[in-house]
Design goal:
Residues 9-328 form the FAD/NAD(P)-binding domain. The chain has 482 residues and is of the alpha/beta class. The chain contains 13 helices and 22 strands. A hairpin with a 6-residue loop joins strand 13 (245-251) and strand 14 (258-263). Bound molecules: flavin-adenine dinucleotide (FAD) and nicotinamide-adenine-dinucleotide.
């Protein structure tokens, strides 16, 4: 094997978002790099993740929106769905996004790119699936994650699919059983339903996306259950491949009647698994956690005190695009400067689920605050009577804000509601600036806008913190419906 030994300063395993970020930073320190990719270039985000999922959601939301036009007094039928055209646009636009990534990869130094899967032989040596061996002074692991599929689902045989399959469809199916009411299940399940696919969403323990605040979770359950069949605490007793598809026998609630239904596909959206189990990581001296993931410092991405760094979904921490990008760059920089290693402050946590209404989490979650024993106060604000939301007929939503007692600093928020991708950004920026609730309230709020609902929530929180008066009901100087 050693006849093909290549020696480099830095090997980066994986050329996704984190790997590409690591490469760009590492280049600032050395030109001796192996950027290794076993699968397809293009990144999970662009190929089968963030971008194609939003491309599927866009027509689904547009069609759903048309269904409320009647309430404005606009008459007319809801547009019919041409599944082939919908999927054609999803694929074409997706390919365009992938094309941009591939242009970047094309621009990388050819001598740096290695097309093979890598495994550890020892702490410095990697065996490649093409038979070559690489010895690297420093290594960045950026191998991403893959769908986690419970064994139970294998009974669906060839009708078992994941997000990796959906965005290659040529047409929409007639029916889909979506398992997992996490982020992927909610986004794809609701979009498929809105595009006329007979969709059932099967959850577990009443979980909804990333929500931990019981009040928001309950509200979200109500919203989604009123729109499509959502068995948030269902029990599935059997899954069978039958001639027409997948037969699923289930109870919608533990004490409800058992029912059997055949779906064209079973879509597994039951979480993701770090691609660390196929790296022979045990051939290194790294300390592993109970999931088999190397223990690392999230401020430097360094595994222990070693020359190995881990970034992106593979570290199982915050599987989001902007985090993978930040982590990749930090890992690449530190791999470049090793043995000197710098710590960098991380950004305020921010998560958005592109369901409708949108779900968002910012800063510390409710469950983290409860566990941390930090003294905090909270406020709740509904968007059902919020002026701008009612004008636009998007008045479904509930927001909970958490602030630190004594300092009045905003700590976090969980929410479901209209335009919450934007409100969540305002809140995360405020939290990152360590602003108090009083200081945020000094910022301008226009009228009439959805942000006025956020202002009401902040005023209520200020009062809960004993730092401001109870806001007047239907406050006219705040604008009607604020
Ligand atoms: C359906 C879906 C929707 C999503 N939507 C959003 C969203 O809206 N917003 C958001 O912020 N995040 C979203 N995400 C999450 C986001 O896509 C990921 O957090 C991000 O893409 C992770 O990047 P990464 O670099 O860690 O992994 P990847 O981009 O997956 O890169 C890892 C690379 O490593 C390669 N590899 C694996 N093992 C080896 C090996 N042994 N040797 C060599 N190469 C290897 C893989 O082939 C892959 O190319 C979504 C994810 C999914 C699945
Ligand atoms: N908008 C976004 O930012 C976005 C979109 C999609 C994905 N993502 C990222 O991808 C990650 C993975 O998404 P995901 O939805 O696969 O994972 P997830 O962890 O968000 O949700 C998985 C869900 O599956 C449920 N589950 C597990 N086993 C089950 C079973 N047997 N039956 C029914 N339900 C079961 C869990 O209770 C959980 O609610 C997310 O954590 C997120 O970071 C982000």
């Amino acid at each position: 094997m050693d006849n093909q030994l290549k020696q480099v300063d830095i090997a980066i395993i994986g050329t996704g978002t984190a790997g590409m970020g690591a490469y760009r930073e590492a280049l600032k320190f050395t030109k001796s790099i192996a950027l290794i990719e076993g699968g397809e270039y293009g990144t999970t985000c662009a190929r089968v993740g963030c971008m194609p999922s939003k491309l599927l959601i866009a027509p689904a939301e547009a069609r759903h929106r048309a269904a409320v036009f009647e309430q404005f007094g606009l008459q007319g039928s809801v547009p019919s769905v041409d599944g082939q055209l919908i999927m054609k646009r999803v694929r074409e636009e997706r390919d365009r996004f992938v094309g941009f990534v591939n242009e970047d990869v094309d621009g990388f130094d050819e001598t740096h790119k290695v097309k093979a899967y890598a495994k550890f032989i020892d702490e410095h040596t990697l065996a490649l699936s093409n038979g070559e061996t690489i010895r690297a002074e420093r290594i960045v692991i950026a191998t991403g994650s893959r769908p986690n599929i419970p064994k139970f689902f294998e009974a669906a045989e060839d009708r078992l699919i994941t997000n990796d399959d959906v965005f290659y469809w040529n047409d929409l199916p007639k029916s889909v059983a979506v398992f997992g009411a996490g982020v992927i299940g909610l986004e794809l399940g609701q979009a498929l339903h809105r595009l006329g696919v007979d969709t059932h969403l099967f959850g577990a323990n009443d979980a909804v996306g990333p929500l931990s605040d019981p009040a928001i979770r309950e509200y979200a359950l109500g919203v989604f259950k009123s729109e499509f069949p959502f068995h948030s605490n269902g029990e599935v007793s059997s899954i069978k491949r039958v001639a027409e598809g997948v037969e699923i026998t289930f109870k919608s609630e533990p004490d409800s009647q058992e029912q059997t239904k055949v779906f064209e596909y079973l879509l597994a959206a039951t979480g993701r698994r770090a691609n660390v189990d196929n790296l022979n990581i045990e051939n290194t001296q790294l300390t592993l956690d109970t999931r088999g993931i190397p223990v690392y410092d999230p401020l430097s991405m360094q595994c222990g005190h070693s020359h190995i760094f881990i970034a992106g979904d593979v570290n199982g921490d915050i599987p989001l695009l902007h985090e993978a990008s930040d982590e990749g760059r930090l890992a690449g920089e530190n791999a470049g400067r090793f043995p000197e290693v710098f710590k960098r402050a991380r950004k305020t946590p921010l998560g958005v689920v592109f369901s409708d209404p949108q779900i968002a989490t910012v800063g510390k979650s409710y469950s983290q605050l409860v566990a941390s024993k930090v003294p905090f106060a909270s406020s709740s604000v509904s968007f059902e009577n919020q002026g701008r939301a009612r004008v636009m007929l998007v008045n479904k939503g509930l927001m909970r804000l958490y602030g630190e007692k004594e300092t009045g600093i905003l700590l976090g928020a969980e929410m479901i509601g209209p335009s919450h991708e934007h409100l969540a950004h305002l809140l995360s920026w405020s939290i990152q600036m360590r602003m108090t609730v009083g200081e945020i309230l000094q910022m301008p709020f226009y009228h009439p806008v959805i942000e006025e609902g956020l202002r009401t929530g902040l005023r209520l929180l200020l009062n809960e913190l004993n730092m401001g008066p109870q806001p007047p009901l239907n406050c006219i100087d705040c604008g009607p419906g604020a």
